[in-house]
Description:
Blueprint: E1 2-5, H1 6-11, H2 13-20, E2 25-29, E3 32-37, H3 45-70, H4 78-95
Parallel strand pairs: 1-2
Antiparallel strand pairs: 2-3
Amino acid sequence: MRYMATRELRNRPGAFQDLVDGQDVVLTSSGKPFALVIGIDGENVEETVRLVSRVRAEQALSRLRKRAAEQGLDRLTEEEVEKEVRAARRARRRRG
Length: 96
């Protein structure tokens, strides 16, 4: 995996395509990564987007599970979960 600063991308856009060809590139701004560019083949664009979306969803679920475990929420009973859901829905209706 290669890294490329946005400044370099702006100054040498032609180098970007060469860099992406065959490998993934992490874009950075002020030294911090903010985007991942993956090379794709033109025939499988939709499949690639679908797979990336699936991975993002799995990452989000993992983060939620970790946070729940840290807060002890992974030990709630089904009844306690339903109570929390009802309370959240009531609060949302009041705001909406």
